[in-house]
Write a structure and sequence with these properties.
The protein has about 120 residues and is mainly alpha-helical. About 50% of the residues lie in helices and about 0% in strands. Helix 2 (about 30-40) packs antiparallel against helix 6 and helix 3 (about 50-55) crosses helix 4 (about 60-65). It is globular.
Amino acid sequence: MMDQLEFKLLGRIDAPSVCPEQWVRKAETYRDVVRLAWTLRRAKGAKAVDLARHCEFHAQHVSDWLAMDDKPKRRSLPAHHIPAFEDFVGNTLVSQWLARHAQLTVLEEITATKAAA
């Protein structure tokens, strides 16, 4: 039998890819994880203005979301924009961080769904 090699070249192209746990643990705050998801974006040449145009976000809001400083007047990525943001950047880091922060596991979610039915 031949050993199979794992190809890390091919990621999901039909939806955002799941990030390794090391990246989820690296972010300490919500604003950190949004910036990290942007840094790990699939299209490395994409600019903030491209994100704003593609997802129909206000460019000034996107600038606030991605700003490296955490001034009190900076806006954060709203929850209802997370799916579009993740589709654009090509990873689910924000959702993964939120789930980890809530200490939610997939098994718990499945169990709760079955119990509610």
